[in-house]
Amino acid sequence: MNNRKPMGLREFQRLIESIYYRKDKARGLHGTYFWFAEEVGELTRALRRGERGRQEEEFADVLAWLSTLASIQGVDLERAARRKYGKGCPYCHATPCACPDPGAKPRQKKVLRRNKTG
Ligand SMILES: [Zn+2]
Predict the structure, then answer these.
(1) Which member of 10, 37, 54, 82 lies 3.0 to 4.6 Å from 46 by CB, making a disulfide possible if both were Cys?
(2) Alpha helix segments (H runs only) across 1-118
(3) Cβ-contact 105, 111 below 8 angstroms
(4) If you measure from the C-alpha of residue 106 to the centroid of ligand 1, how many angstroms do you get, rounded to a whole number?
(5) Domain of 110?
(6) Are residue 56 and residue 107 in the same domain, yes or no?
(7) Sequence-separated (6 or more) residues with CB below 8 Å from residue 63
(8) Are both 30 and 80 inside the same structural domain?
(9) 96 alpha carbon to ligand 1 midpoint, in Å?
(10) CA 102 to centroid of ligand 1, rounded, Å
(11) Three-state SS string across 57-85, please?
(12) Residues with CB under 5 A from ligand 1 (ion)
């Protein structure tokens, strides 16, 4: 593969499919999701520790596992991303987003719920 040629999301998904789809499909959604979650954990660790080289590797792994999950579910990642974000923020429709404080409300609700149950 030519390393200097730009690679779109669809092309990346096809690449990951050609390398891993058979194994990932056989493992199934749940087993593959666990691998994805594990890679997110590894990315978290690399971010926390400020390990720059490691972060790059883990971002690639998370994207690859996300991509393979989409393939197992028959989701075209590029189309899905374009549909949701292709016209800017899906909520205020602006680029850059002009929402007052994105994500603040749901996060606050979760915290309140957690505090009620102890
Ligand atoms: Zn917005």
Answers:
(1) 54
(2) 9-49, 52-72, 77-85, 104-117
(3) no
(4) 14
(5) 88-118
(6) no
(7) 12
(8) yes
(9) 7
(10) 7
(11) HHHHHHHHHHHHHHHHCCCCHHHHHHHHH
(12) 89, 91-92, 97, 99
Give me ligand 1 centre to Cα 82, in Å.
Answer: 16
pLDDT digits (tens, 9 = 90+) for 32-77: 999 999 999 999 999 999 999 999 999 999 999 999 999 999 999 9
Tokens of 92: 């205020």
Measured in Å, residue 95 CA sits from the centre of ligand 1 at: 8
Q: How far is the CA of 98 from the centre of ligand 1 (A)?
A: 5
Query: pTM here?
Result: 0.80
Q: What's the CA gap between 84 and 89, in Å, rounded?
A: 8
Q: Using one digit for the tens of pLDDT, what is the confidence trace for 71-84? A: 999 999 999 999 99
Domain count, the chain: 2
- Ligand 1 centroid distance, CA of 9 (Å): 23
Same domain? 21 vs 66: yes
